[in-house]
Every structure is written in C-alpha cells, then in structure tokens.
Amino acid sequence: MLNPFKTNTIAILYIALGRYDIFFNDFYENMEKNFVPNTKKTYFVFTDSKNITSHENIVRIEQAKLGWPYDTLKRFAMFEGIKEELASFDYIFFFNANALVLEKITAPMILPSKDEGLVFARHPAFSCILPDMNWESRESFRQSYCKDPNSLACIKDDEGFCYVMGALNGGRAKEYLELIETLAARVEADLQKDVVAVWHDESHLNRYLIDVVKNGKKPKIIGANFLVPEEHLEALGFHFYKDVPFLKLAKLRANITLLNKSHPRFGGHEYLRGLSDVKVELQKGDEVNLYKRYGGGGELGAFSPKLFLKCFYLNLKHNLSAKKGLKDKNA
User: Fold this and answer.
1) 264 Cβ partners below 8 Å, 6+ apart?
2) Whole-angstrom distance, CA of residue 249 vs CA of residue 32
3) Whose CA, among 26, 124, 135, 246, lies 20 to 30 Å from 322?
4) Using only C-alpha atoms, what is the Rg of the chain?
5) Which residues are paired to 47 by β-bridges?
C-alpha cells in the first residue's frame, strides 16, 4: 500500500508582531525537530521584527503591527496576501506564536487525508477524554460560541458539536486556501459593520467548522493534548480525563504546549501585546513551578530530564538577567 504522506511539503504560517518575536527561535527549533520530521517545511513569518530574517526555509514577510485585536483578527487577510505562494505546497498550517512542540508528531497524526481536507484542534478548556481514549466535548463548550446575530461568526444554540482553538489549524492547500479566503471576507464584512466577534478569529473558525460539517465534510479534529497550556502541564491527566482509570493517564502526552504569555520570563501578556512597557516581575516560587512544568513531574511523576535541564537553563538565564538589572539599577 502506498504511503499517502510519503512526499509532501508543508507551509507554516506564523505571526510575530511587536514583542512576540521572543518565541520564534524556540518555536522554529522544535518544529524542525519534532513536527513531521524529514519533511520539507517552509516558514512564512509575518513580522515587524528586525530580529527575524529570511534564510534557508524561513521567509520573512514585513507586516506592520495593527494593534489589538487586529493583529490576530486579521490573520486570514495577512495569509490571503501570499495565497499564490501557498498554493504550491501540499499542506498549510498555522501556529500561535507561543506554541512549542514537545513530542514527535508524525504525518498520520496531524496531516489530513484527502477526504478530511482540514485539521482543527479541540480547545483544552472544553474537552475531556473518555476511558476508550476518545475525546468528547464538555457540556460547557457552547458557552464560548459567538452569539452576536450581527456577526458572520454567530452560532445558534442548537448548532455545533465541539469548540476548537484558534492556536493551531491547517489542512491540504486547496481546502485551507478556501478557508483563508472565506474567513478573510467574513471578518472584513463584520468590520464594515463595526462588529468584532467575541473571540475574534477563533469565533470565525468555529463557525467555519460547523459549515464544513454541514456540507458533508469530515475534517480531522485532533485532541486537546495538541494544545496544552503550559500552566496545566503538571496536571495534564487530571485536567483532561473523565472517569478514566489512573493507570491509563500515562498514555496521554502533551504533544504541543502553549507557553504561558503571562509569565514574567516573557514580560507578561500586556507587555507582549504592547499595552504596557512594564514587565511583570518574577515572583518567589515561580522557579519551582517551572521545574515542575518543564520537567513534567507534577503529580504524574513522568519526569523528563531534557525538559528539566531546559528549565534549569531558563532559570539560570533569568536569575543572571535579574542580577544584571539590579546591578545596572544600582550603578
């Protein structure tokens, strides 16, 4: 039987506006190592940062900072601007700037079949996993749908079957380019009426998923373990499992984590967004929590030496930086 994923090219879409460029180097390094290894990947980086340059498989695209929430809301319009380049790839994926691939993700795990076409990722806050290791939606999943009848992202009370996160999505080039074109137009139509969907691009993405399914398609929907918030890593099993025997907890791994943008090592959420020039300070005890999260210990005891050492390096770097700042302040 021929391997449907034997030869393919993947375009990676990434937005690093303002201070979000701090995430790119780690993102790129881990993507190259863990995301569909041995596959040709090209990174299209929309940025205003001079720290990111085009080289090898990185294509820097100059993009002015639009301000919040337009830096995220108008992502589909950004992507539409390079649709001709994207059409030459087999697959296209978008990742949030703070995504970090922790585990090997193979082609069958992430790439959609011809029948599936698109890939969406369950939102961790509205998902849980059953004893048979299949995912289901929590009863609360409809709470985050856009209910504004003036928005093209509006979802009725009796619609939908799960809530997906905007931090990761993709698909085969043809299908994903159709998604980009449709959602760019819908967002612009909303803006012309001074309407912004409650969760911006994510609201439009959830509306699109419902429309795709209504049209008879069956897109690939990956589990919430592909988007685990960093602050939940240490309690991964207890956060997702629903009436599952304890011994099965080890079977679920966090394939991708979303680094905590509110953490002091990144300056804090408002600092990253450019809403403040004041960085959040590292508080006593934060280092210990980082060891647990990066080390993967927590209550599950699944210790990862590699991540533990990375955490040790981060703590050392932050402590030296803090000491340098104090020295400069007292100079």
Assistant:
1) 279, 280, 281, 282, 283, 286, 318
2) 28
3) 26
4) 20
5) 16, 62
Residue whose C-alpha is closest to residue 155's, from 141, 167, 168: 141
Task: Taking each helix axis as running N to C, give the angle between helix 286-295 and helix 305-330, from 0 to 180 degrees, rounded to the nearest 10.
Answer: 150
Q: Report which residue type is found at 299.
A: E
User: For residue 73, what are its two tokens?
Assistant: 């809301």
pLDDT at 276: 83
- CA 89/CA 72 separation, integer angstroms: 23
Is 160's pLDDT higher than 50?
Answer: yes
Question: DSSP for 92-112?
Answer: EEEE-TTEEE-S-B-HHHHS-
Residue 257: pLDDT over 80: yes
Helices vs. strands in the chain: H and E counts, helices first: 11, 12
pLDDT at 325 over 50: no
178-209 tens-digit pLDDT: 999 999 999 999 999 999 999 999 999 999 99
Backbone angles phi, psi at 195, to 5 degrees: -115, 135
Residues 293, 239: contact at Cβ < 8 Å?
A: no
Distance CA 67, CA 77 (A): 15
Give Cα separations from 44 to 26, 95, 106, 163, 202 (angstroms).
16, 11, 21, 27, 20
> Which residue type does 186 have?
R
d(CA 75, CA 196): 14
| Cα separation values, 127 from 110, 140, 177, 188, Å | 18, 9, 27, 30
Residue type present at position 94: F
Which ranges in the chain belong to alpha helices (H)? 24-34, 70-73, 75-80, 83-86, 107-110, 173-192, 200-214, 236-240, 269-273, 286-295, 305-330
Residue indicated by tokens 């978008």: 94
Which is nearest to 225 in space by CA: 119, 129, 118, 91?
A: 129
Report yes or no: 303 and 296 within 8 Å, Cβ to Cβ: yes
The answer to whether 269 and 112 have CB atoms below 8 angstroms apart is no
**Phi and psi of 89, rounded to 5°?**
-95, 160
